[in-house]
Amino acid sequence: MSSSDIQSALIEAAAADADGVCQSQTPGGAGNLTINGALADGGAVTFDEPRQVTITGTGNEAGKTFTITGTDETGAAASEAIAGPNNSTVTTTTYFATISQIAVDAGTAAAITVGSSANIAGVIYRGALRLRGMYVVNGANSGVVTFREGSAAGDIRMQYRTSGTAASTEFPSIPDYGIRHEGGAYVLFDQATMASMTVFYS
């Protein structure tokens, strides 16, 4: 295959923002939260890269259910119901690309915020591809970067561990014919372990 068939994708995400979706608010009863954080646009959020969502509160909201609605890393409609925090932060398992609504089933004991986490599901390409190579800028922590096919919950096609040396670079080795991903390729990582990645694929 000639080099002209090779495509590239830059995977790089903004820092996590604990109130980037919803600024501090104390709902008095069941209903929708106001999506008014720095990441909001017209009452909705579109993330730069799909990521998990955090809910933070100082009160005991463990008996409340928060339902987040939007789309996931594949572009499909997504919704997740999650128990509230108890003087802590809780995190979704779903990676949201967009958020259109956040509802709570009862009033909260104290103020809560909703934000973006540092857990990313970067979209390389949503169609079939072969992973050919990559250039990585590491974060300060050593951790595992995972490539999955089809979705963020799909089969693992490749994993490697970062060095943990901030701003260092590396070129993880890929077999000659590349690594096949059916139905799309997604790279899962924590921003503390990887700052950015340029992926080459065909």
Would you write up a description of this structure?
It is elongated, with a radius of gyration of 18 Å. The chain is built from no helices and 17 strands. It folds into two domains: 90 residues; 104 residues. Strand 6 and strand 7 form a beta hairpin. With 202 residues, it is mainly β. The mean pLDDT is 96.
The chain-level structural class is: mainly beta
What share of residues are in beta strands? Answer: over 45%
Distance between the first and last residues' Cα: 9 Å
Please give the radius of gyration in angstroms.
18 Å
How many H/I helices? Answer: 0
Short account of what is shown:
The protein is mainly beta and 202 residues long.
Give me the secondary-structure topology:
Blueprint: E1 7-12, E2 17-25, E3 31-32, E4 40-41, E5 44-60, E6 65-72, E7 77-83, E8 86-91, E9 96-104, E10 112-125, E11 129-138, E12 144-149, E13 156-161, E14 169-170, E15 179-181, E16 185-190, E17 194-201
Antiparallel strand pairs: 1-17, 2-10, 3-9, 4-5, 5-8, 5-9, 5-10, 6-7, 6-9, 10-16, 11-14, 11-15, 11-17, 12-13, 12-16
